[in-house]
Amino acid sequence: MADVPELHLVHNRCGDISLVYEGRAYKLKRAARKKYWRCSQDKEGCGGAIWTNLDVTSVIKRNDHIESCPVDEHLVYKMEEKAVLTKRSAEETKPIPAIYDEEASAASAEPSTSGYFPPFKRVKSAMYGHRAKRFPKLPNHRRDLQIPVPFRTTKAGDNFLLWQS
């Protein structure tokens, strides 16, 4: 049986879905009777594109890539791990380096993928960015703190003492 390349749908850095096919990432441009995916390197001049059916189970047509368009056989693994790291950093309150260390140690247990885990330098800003979206920034000064009305009264209905001058 011939080696048939697989189609993988993976979350990208913008939170959208990317298609990974033959070591290259594609972003969805149009979906009507079939889906049109452009190479993620299109800003660098790559005209690579593929058309898939609506279920994204088979490739209908494809355009060639330029020679300088990179191919990465482990792109699916890298994108999946980065998505896991950013998801955990947004959901958990553990320190970001602790989350990274847990995932890196779990990945190093498998020798086949240990060398392809993304370095902390590459995922650090994405992890901190997703956490910042989830948790609001604290105000710079106490007077800037806005307390909603329901939290300004006690259960008995009296005004809650915020500070005493």
From TrEMBL:
Pfam families: FLYWCH. It comes from the Eukaryota. Keywords: Metal-binding, Zinc, Zinc-finger. Residues 12-61 form the FLYWCH-type domain. One of its GO terms (molecular function) is zinc ion binding. This is FLYWCH-type domain-containing protein. The lineage of its organism: Eukaryota, Metazoa, Ecdysozoa, Nematoda, Enoplea.
